[in-house]
Design goal:
23 strands, single chain, disordered N terminus, 15% strand, binds magnesium ion, 24 helices, binds adenosine-5'-diphosphate
Amino acid sequence: MGLRGRRSLKLLCAGSRASQFPRSCGSVPQLPRPWLRACSSRSLSGLIGPIACPPLSALTLFISQQRTADFVSATTSYFRNSQKRPVATATVYTDWQRRCRYSVAANAAVRLGEGSCLPSAKMGSRKKVHAFVRVRPTDDFAHEMIKYRDDNKTIDIHLKKDSRRGVVNNQQTDWSFKLDRVLHDASQDLVYETVAKDVVSQALNGFNGTIMCYGQTGAGKTYTMTGATENYKHRGILPRALQQVFKMIEERPTHAITVRVSYLEIYNESLFDLLSTLPYVGPSVTPMTIVENPQGVFIKGLSVHLTSQEEDAFSLLFEGETNRIIASHTMNKNSSRSHCIFTIYVEARSRTLSDEKYVTSKINLVDLAGSERLGKSRSEGRVLKEATYINKSLSFLEQAIIALGDQKRDHIPFRQCKLTHALKDSLGGNCNMVLVTNIYGEAAQLEETLSSLRFASRMKLVTTEPTVNEKYDAERMVKNLEKELALLKQELAIHDSLANRTLVNYDPMDEIQIAEINSQVRRYLEGTLEEIDIINLRQIQEVFNQFRVVLSQQEQEVESTLRRKYTLIDKNDYAAISAVQKAGLVDADGHLVGEPDGQGFGLGVAPFSTKPGKKSKSKKMFKEQLRPSTPPAKPVAFEDFKNERGSEINRIFKENKSILNERRKRASETTQRINAIKREIDMTKEALNLQKSLREKQGEYENKGLMIIDEEEFLLILKLKDLKKQYRTEYQDLRDLRAEIQYCQHLVDQCRHRLLTEFDIWYNESFFVPEDLQMAVKPGGSIRPGMMPLSKIVSLGEDDQDRFSQLQQTTLPEGPDSVSFYNAKVKMEQKHNYLKTMMGLQQAHRK
Ligand code: ADP
Ligand code: MG
């Protein structure tokens, strides 16, 4: 009798015609109408929980025909999403008379679990490990000491008091263990049905499964797991599981299912491949190692064999069994001291659907070494070493089991020994797990029996969360997407032809098409094109793109036209502005001095020659005309100076300025790039941390001291490394640029200073120096042009200049009307200073 047989069948009926359902079904509870009306998985979760209690094995529903599709899909997703754990093959009868059955999708039909009622959705899909006890048949069964209760689950142990321990004896004598089932005198058939059948069938749906036999040597672990290989009837779980797998494959022609197997032995902490003797495997060069990756644990170096039919699989099993026995002779191994893990790997892809999803699973069938304690075996020497190993690995297994059973523990010590490490993803975790504890029925073995039962009840505390191992076939996915793309293009073509549109191309644009759009945009902006026709989304995007391109080109053109015509000063370059102001070229508002309407462009000053009405005046005439009375206005003279004596220094000044601007622009671009990289680094770091914490949560993988990380994390690390490299390069560039900018700024300041200084000298020499002194300055004279002692000639002392510009910046904005006042004041002071200087110079000359 399997699990299912012992549960009652629950019939529920629902739907608009629910009342018509058979009275003969007895008291079939009616489902509330809103259930089917709502028919969403969310509303189902609220309704199905309370209804489906108490225990049931099959949820059978009668519903009306018209709602079938809705209902099946809602129930399916409900079961898949929230009810992984519990019950019932849900069967829907749409028409009770004809009994046409809708099985609520294979993966929605769920097995009856512990507790057996449907838990509410909140309880999640955790599931307890199933623990069974199998008692080895004996004529000498200790009836007084071992008792089974009627529930077939509870086993009571009574130990007689040890008289040697005196009168006061507090020794515990009674124990009771409640497991999932006690298998007494059970046939191999029944054992398989009870223990393994569901685990194996779930494996074909993508759930991992582990079946483990535990117990003292001779208690029947190997008999349970492998069985008597010479007797078909007495074959154990292993051959039966293989048979079931191949039978199920036959029943599922809609799926392409591949089966692989491997057989591993762990003896004295060494790994042995029990199938390495097969001719095509070849000797292994490197010793096997346990490796972990996001897909799970696998043994590097262990041969895995594809089997397309049952017979091949059996041959492999027998090969392994023979090797196990031979090895125990040739290598002097005691087979009861080794752990054997036979693994069946399943991969199922849908044949009919071109679904990129596929499921994989593995079934681990574990025959553990004897669990007897060291003291009893009285082992010595080599045997002692073996026994220590066994005890160690089994006690590590026990530690792992205890940790798994403790909800508060987040670290499970899997890597303490090869056994637990190899089974890391098969103990607890996401798999269906079953333990068979093999015990003796004899009184003499009672102590070991007790310890085995304790292990079993610990195992029962472990919960697992079986989940489907769903994978994506990237190649299939790309193919599907390509197919869909082609389909959508066809669809578009149909739409276009229905809408009477000429054939539209939806492919990415080539250069010629882009150039055409550019020309359209230009013509549109010029006004020669009325409108730009909309063709498709790609074209609209390109039109916008080209607008941007044209706009930025036009901006550049305007700027260079202006530059050709005017000297442009950056409004933010305060040094340049104040220098121009010092030179008296512009007033505090940036207007040209002497130009009341301030029509100059920005702070720009049109060269003297371009000023209307002044064009025809040559410098000489200008000088001759103005010199006797008042010197020319400084702004005008400055322009003149720049074209004449100061032309070279002005050219260098301008050149430096443009280099400086260009470097500044580059620096700002580099800064933007650095910021973008920084942002990306931060994002990548965040993603990496997430990956890391996920990895830590899932348990870290280590192999030979090296951390194993998944591909996604690896790619993130590479990306981060790359970004950091970019960041360093860009940062270095920025540093170089900054140094250059500093240097250029220095040059520009120097040039400006020289330009202004020389202008002052030139101005003074040209308009204020008396005739005789002029002679001295002229070629062949005693003073070279521009070489008149600066300290003596600069008309406005540095301090005065500073004070004035400060005044301009602080006082003037408050009272713009005072400009002329201050200008006059400055001119007065300049004149005064100049006269003072000249007198000094004349005296010096006389000497
Ligand atoms: P273990 O692997 O636990 O050391 P075995 O499976 O090798 O023990 O069993 C020891 C012996 O007992 C074997 O000869 C086996 O055939 C026999 N045996 C164990 N359990 C049963 C059983 N349930 N029915 C019949 N024979 C059994
Ligand atoms: Mg054995």
